[in-house]
Amino acid sequence: VSAGNGCGHTLLTPHSGTLSSKNYPGTYPNHTMCCWQLQAPPGTSLLLAFGDVDLEPSEHCAHSSLLLTDPQTGTAYGPYCRNSIPSAPLLVTNSSTVTVLFNSTRHRSGRGLLLSYATSQHPAEQVCRRGWMAGSPDPPLTMCFSVYCPAGCKNIHGDIWGNPSQGYRDTSVLCKAAVHAGVIADELGGQVTLSREKGITLYESAFANGLRSKRGSLSEKRLVFHKVCCLLSPACDDVLEVVAFNASSWWHEVDVLGQDRAWVAERAALSTTGHSWAAEPGAEAAWLELDLGTRRNVTGIITKGSSEQHDYYVTSYHVSSSRDGKNWRPYRGSSGQEDKVFEGNADSQGEVSNAFIPPMVARYIR
């Protein structure tokens, strides 16, 4: 939990999380405070990674400070500020409970703080920041390696370059790129496996899982994420064949020449040229249904609008699945608490990818 008027981006889960001061990485405000209570499962201990601690210097960090305390043992770490920084980027505690206290008085400079944490069950923590985990040598080319990404890296400051099919520039924010690639869910974090391979001349921009990557130029090395292992077969990411399409309704358009054109469900296939599927104008709770012919493992979805004479696209949607076409189960994602709302398209031209974490096993998708 967190409390106070100086809290920035915060996502805390029992196994990992990310927290930052208000306005990070901009200058943190005057006269603010935030207190975060971190609680890991019993029998585990917390590992805290200092992604960035940039508080205006003062004697004994009296004006702005970061202080960590272990209520179980009475141990204190800090206070920290710019002239009194942590001695190591990773703090290994012997406690499952840690209190993080940040406060500021009047000051002029400082980005504030960015911290992430995991438990002793995930010792290979990757900090929510640029570069590799401090102290780890760069992995050799094409060598496969694994790191743990804490929850909450999606909304940290920093750019990602590339997309899942191209790989990612090696200066990308690694864990943020893992969310973009669809190998972990931001609300949970998780272990990721990747390799470092030869780069490419140009990275195209792509929107996936609520994140837009940047178009970029030459990179000598690139990061390639693997959803299963280093020997992942390309067939694992094959596009599933749709046997039949169905929809709640479709639009029968009559153009200026009086000719009828049907925006039927079958035109929803991503490879279709010309106009797409569109529900009847004014229809509420419209749905599109895909029949995969047999039960399949579905790992994600790609959507695109229709630019054929009309600038049509879907901005957000829910997903349901069924094994028999009669009983439907809403997709709730990794949290499992409420129906997941997927972020769709912002125009009719680009494609948007969303991963299903965990995947669905179903014959019918709505």
UniProtKB/TrEMBL annotation:
Domain CUB: 7-120
Residues annotated as domain F5/8 type C: 230-366
Location of the LCCL domain: 147-223
Location in the cell: Membrane
Membrane topology value: Single-pass type I membrane protein
Keyword annotations of the record: Disulfide bond, Membrane, Phosphoprotein, Transmembrane, Transmembrane helix
Disulfide bonds: C7-C34
This protein's GO CC annotations: plasma membrane
Pfam family, one: CUB
GO molecular function: signaling receptor activity
Family annotation (InterPro entries): CUB_dom, FA58C, Galactose-bd-like_sf, LCCL, LCCL_sf, Neuropilin_MCO_CoagFactor, Sperma_CUB_dom_sf
Transmembrane segments: none
Name of the protein described by the UniProt record: DCBD1 protein
Species of provenance: Brachypodius melanocephalos (black-headed bulbul)
Gene this protein is translated from: Dcbld1_0
